[in-house]
Amino acid sequence: MQKFIRLIAFIVVAVMLLAVVLDWVYTTIFQQSSMRGKIEYVYHARPQQYDVVFLGSSRANNHFVAPLFEAKGLKTFNYGMSASHLFEASLLLKLMVERHFVIKKLILETDMNLANEKRDAGISAQFLPYLHDSEMIRNHFAQEEDFWKLYYIPFYRYVAFDAKIGFREMNRSWRGVPTNYLENLGYHPLSGKKKGNMKNDIRALNPLDNKYYKEIKAICKAHHIQLIAIMTPMCSNVKGMDYFDKVKSKYPEIYNYENVVEGDQYFSSCGHLNDAGARLFTARILRDFFGK
């Protein structure tokens, strides 16, 4: 019996030591990588100066054509991330400020993402390799239900979010395999050839008194960043379009641009403009806010 207990104890200790070693290896590799995604790019960045920065979900990533701003002489980058929520947008802005980014204007896609305060599991996981090294990231995650496990159990974060920061991503980071996330100044164009779902039903959505939107506003005020919050276009075949009226009623400062691009030929899916539509939309934003 004693031999069995000693064997179990040995296995437990060995597993714990292996977890610690693997956690250190994965974390070290991720901390050496800076060019595979927008989060790690900001985390490792030297101070930057921008005239305009974009934040938001795919409706920012696919809608704001950053090169058109650069063509007007405006230093810019689109830091929108597909599938992200305001949880991630707020944290990314915090990191920019911590890295001493000087930002004159922040254009924030603020519409569907106001309807929840949850984090996106896949996007937020990309912050986790820096959880022990960044007080900013640690504090942002501190109220999450799984924070204790993420922070205190070695290697747990890499197992729990294997699809995003597991072996495959670690290996690609180690080998320096490039991605297209940083191309086109962060703007990701969508093709108009293959249509996605051209119907949408948002009747169940209601904008919240969103704490992460409040955080973004407070950060901008404290650091003298002009915040331009914008609702971006959707196709005409949407049920529940009064959602945008609800947003405007709750947040009068948010500009409503949901209907400025008309015609399904300009959409890749009901909630996402294709490249041609994005260029029309971006031209309108340039004219309205940067015409002078």
Summed up, what is this model?
By secondary structure, this protein is of the alpha/beta class. It has helices spanning 2-32, 38-43, 58-61, 66-71, 86-98, 121-124, 135-141, 147-152, 156-160, 162-165, 167-175, 211-222, 242-250, 275-290, and strands spanning 49-55, 76-78, 102-109, 200-201, 226-231, 238-239, 255-256, 267-269, 272-273.
Give the topology.
Layout: H1 2-32, H2 38-43, E1 49-55, H3 58-61, H4 66-71, E2 76-78, H5 86-98, E3 102-109, H6 121-124, H7 135-141, H8 147-152, H9 156-160, H10 162-165, H11 167-175, E4 200-201, H12 211-222, E5 226-231, E6 238-239, H13 242-250, E7 255-256, E8 267-269, E9 272-273, H14 275-290
Parallel strand pairs: 1-2, 1-3, 3-5, 4-6, 5-7
Antiparallel strand pairs: 8-9
Any idea of the CATH class?
A: Alpha Beta
Q: Unreliable stretches, pLDDT < 50, 5 or more residues? A: none
Q: How many structural domains can be distinguished in the coordinates?
A: 1
User: DSSP helix count?
Assistant: 14
Fraction of residues in helix: 40-55%
Structure, explained:
There is one protein chain. The protein is of the alpha/beta class. It has a single domain (2-290), classed as Rossmann fold (3-Layer(aba) Sandwich). It is 45% helix and 12% strand. It is built from 14 helices and nine strands. The strands form three sheets. The chain has a five-stranded parallel β-sheet with strand order 2-1-3-5-7. It has a two-stranded parallel sheet with strand order 4-6. A hairpin with a 2-residue loop joins β8 (267-269) and β9. The radius of gyration is 21 Å and the shape is elongated. The relative contact order is 0.16. Keywords: Membrane, Transmembrane, Transmembrane helix. It comes from Flavobacterium keumense. This is SGNH/GDSL hydrolase family protein.
